[in-house]
Amino acid sequence: MENNTDDIKVGGTKIRYYDSYGAWLLPDKTFTNNPLKAQRAAEEIENKRHKPKLAWEIWEIQFVMEKKRDCNFRSVAMKLDRDVLDVKQLVTAIRAD
Fold it and tell me: Which secondary-structure segment (H or E) carries 23?
């Protein structure tokens, strides 16, 4: 942020500044005049976006087991909000059994 009325960018997250309101629009559809609050909101969104999932849920494993024969890794990964590599590793482990 170079000017005090610039949009706030953190990674791929952007909090827009609206001149007509003189404030930044937060994700909960409220406005704030505080740039630190807007920055914190952008950082929280970015952290949630890149937070890795560690453990597989039971329903996710069941879903992959149903799809393992005609498995399109990318579509399954998108439906489960996982990385393609994670899905490939799980399918490989299931097929090994």
Answer: strand 23-25
**Sign (positive/negative) of CA torsion 31, 37, 38, 43?**
negative
- Lateral strand order in the sheet of 17-18: 17-18, 23-25, 31-32
Sorted by sequence, the CB contacts under 8 Å of residue 8 that are 6+ apart come out as 1, 14, 15, 17, 24, 35, 38, 39, 42
The backbone torsions φ and ψ at residue 23, rounded to the nearest 5 degrees and listed phi first, read: -155, 170
pLDDT tens digits, one per residue of 38-88: 999 999 888 877 666 677 788 888 887 777 666 677 888 888 878 888 888
